[in-house]
Design goal:
377 residues; globular; 13 strands; 50% helix; single chain; alpha/beta
């Protein structure tokens, strides 16, 4: 196996270096226990500097950039491991798969990817796994993919938290039609979010009705045009909801230009989207905490590469949680997210410190079978 072999070679070199160092110290009459323990630890397999990884994004969206930034922090903490951020500018499954293949060909020791739609990825991920390259996913898993593990929030919780926030704004006696938007109608990843939304809403606002799931596309400008048409078709809707990252900015843009006051809710956590929430142009944003999930995923990946052992059970899922953003807390969230966009990672470190400490006390104990991802943890 590629990575195990690399780890064994590194371990052998470390052992030889340690023996030579001990012989040199003894020859000079020194005490072998008086050396710098920090340097000894760093050379004893505790640095990820020799490892090259890749983050194969579905598209260059703010959420992916934040995920990458989280990975860079993990790489920095373990000694400077390499992360190549690759993938198409806009969603293009074939281009993304080619970027995955290119990463393998260029010598990536491990990969994190967003395989959407998952069915197209079965063969390439299986081959990478057989070749000893661990593959983690962070946004679009499938139970049949031969991945090391999935790191990301609960899709059912994404939907249910959106429902709670929308119902809170609408009031307990609200009735009317809720528009359901999706960038990939019928894809299980997003449909599970929608199901979580409807299940929770049935408890909170049992008299509302829903449109069919409408296609709002995987490209920002097209999503905006799709939502323009939807707004014209459903002017009396109680709420507009979109369960992909593309819809929130589109709805906010339309709301800013419209005299009508719909309830609107989307997925996302980038600074510009949070500004829209703070300004009242989007009522709810459900964040996937991308910086945190990127940090967790790459810290686990680099740990596996350094030790030669998988920190999580194969084909498991580690739930990294969600964050609900409304007008009430948007200003506070914006401080953290804008700082990250400006290159200051400290607010993220401060905010997630407790979660990081608790998770890495025993990550395997918090992992569940990947099959649970589609039913809620």
């Amino acid at each position: 196996m590629k990575n195990i072999g690399k780890w064994l070679r590194r371990s052998l070199l470390v052992t030889i270096a340690a023996l030579l160092s001990a012989s040199f110290i003894a020859a000079c009459g020194g005490d072998s226990d008086s050396g710098d323990s920090g340097e000894a630890t760093a050379s004893n397999g505790d640095s990820c500097a020799d490892f090259k990884t890749a983050y194969v994004a579905i598209a260059r969206l703010p959420i992916m950039q934040s995920t990458y930034e989280g990975g860079l922090q993990a790489a920095k903490e373990c000694g400077g491991g390499q992360i190549d951020y690759v993938g198409p500018a806009q969603a293009d499954a074939n281009a993304q798969i080619q970027a995955f293949r290119d990463s393998i060909a260029s010598g990536a020791d491990g990969i994190m990817a967003e395989p959407l739609p998952p069915d197209l990825w079965t063969a390439v991920i299986k081959q990478a796994t057989e070749d000893g390259v661990p593959v983690y996913t962070d946004d679009a898993p499938a139970a049949n993919l031969d991945i090391a593990a999935h790191i990301g929030p609960d899709p059912v919780e994404l939907g249910s938290e959106m429902a709670k926030a929308v119902a809170d704004i609408a009031g307990p006696d609200a009735e009317g039609e809720i528009v359901i938007g999706s960038c990939v109608p019928g894809v299980e990843l997003v449909e599970v979010r929608v199901d979580g939304f409807k299940e929770e809403m049935s408890k909170l606002l049992p008299n509302v009705t829903y449109t069919d799931t409408l296609d709002t596309t995987q490209e920002p400008n097209k999503s905006y045009r799709a939502w323009q048409q939807i707004a014209q078709k459903y002017p009396d809707a109680l709420a507009f909801t979109d369960f992909c990252e593309y819809g929130g900015p589109a709805m906010a843009r339309i709301q800013a230009q419209s005299p009508q006051d719909w309830i609107s809710a989307g997925i996302g956590q980038g600074p510009e989207l949070i500004k829209s929430v703070a300004a009242g142009n989007l009522d709810v944003a459900i964040g996937q905490q991308p910086w945190y999930r990127g940090y967790v995923a790459f810290r686990i990946l680099f740990d596996q590469l350094m030790t030669g052992e998988a920190p999580l059970p194969h084909q498991s899922w580690l739930n990294t949680g969600v964050e609900t953003v409304t007008e009430e807390n948007a200003a506070d969230v914006l401080v953290r997210e804008q700082a990250l966009a400006d290159g200051d990672v400290q607010p993220q470190l401060d905010h997630f410190k407790k979660q990081v400490d608790e998770l890495f006390a025993d990550p395997a104990a918090q992992a569940v079978p990947l099959a649970d991802y589609f039913t809620g943890s």
